Amino acid sequence: MNVTAQARELLRRDTTWPFLVPRQRAVDVSHQVILYVEGLSVSFDGFKALNDLNLYVNDGELRCLIGANGAGKTTLMDVITGKTRCDSGSAWFGRNIDLLAHDEAAIAQLGIGRKFQKPTVFEAHTVYTNLELSLKGSKGAWSALTAALTGEQRDRIDRVLETIGLVNARYQLAGALSHGQKQWLEIGMLLAAEPRLLLIDEPVAGMTAEEAERTAELLTSLAGEHTVIVVEHDMEFVRSIARTVTVLHQGAVLAEGTMDQVQNNPDVIEVYLGEDA
Ligand SMILES: Nc1ncnc2c1ncn2[C@@H]1O[C@H](COP(=O)(O)OP(=O)(O)OP(=O)(O)O)[C@@H](O)[C@H]1O
């Protein structure tokens, strides 16, 4: 290769220099567990939001977390994603990655994606550009918008569009999408970054029944390749997707099992599902 060709190769805009690409550490799931949370406690001004909480989630699982307001669901997600520091306990991603030793940005790079309840898509951009901006290894908005996509990246976006059911809306502005479509797009934006574990907060709040049904299909289709933890208050929705449900109460796990098992658990009936039972 002559000097000009070498320089051209080096400056290609469709590739990133290998030394700039963040290296995602492989998660050791040799014991089938992707998330180990043990003895986790978090206090806010003396109030125990999490109280010696233990949680184990298997690789590829779709787990639903339920619990009354203030049970500690958000605080648990906040500790896992590095947003909140705990007082004691441990949180491991697989057997080899100590989440408590990483900050929020590093945890996202490790392959843990989080979706908050309110959709936060770039409304002035198309669906396609939103996904482009979320590709793993993307070096910020400017380079994502100016650099040409590789074939592999285009294929990945196409796969995500297919998964989230927005193939025909790819050139629509995100701001023009329905509430449900925005939620799916945001899930797609997480998927574009190829996470191993997805934490999804109240995905069906504000959705029509039809949108909730499509969301159930979407989330169940993600399990297997991804591990998905869903925090949700809508019991009908939880029943439609959950294999294992974990019930939190006062910062600890109150019960765990199938929806039928937890709904028939006397402790759960007393503190949480009582009014429905
Ligand atoms: N930053 C904070 N400062 C003080 N108290 C907090 C803080 N964050 C959470 N809490 C308290 O900790 C408890 C657990 O809150 P958390 O948001 O984790 O519950 P949750 O199960 O997610 O509830 P919800 O379903 O209402 O979202 C609540 O009593 C809440 O008021």
From TrEMBL:
Key words, A-Z: ATP-binding, Nucleotide-binding, Transport
Gene3D superfamilies tied to this protein: P-loop containing nucleotide triphosphate hydrolases (3.40.50.300)
ATP-binding as UniProt keyword: yes
NCBIfam families: urea_trans_UrtD
Any one GO cellular component localisation term in the record: plasma membrane
Keyword field contains Nucleotide-binding: yes
Protein name listed in UniProt: Urea transport system ATP-binding protein
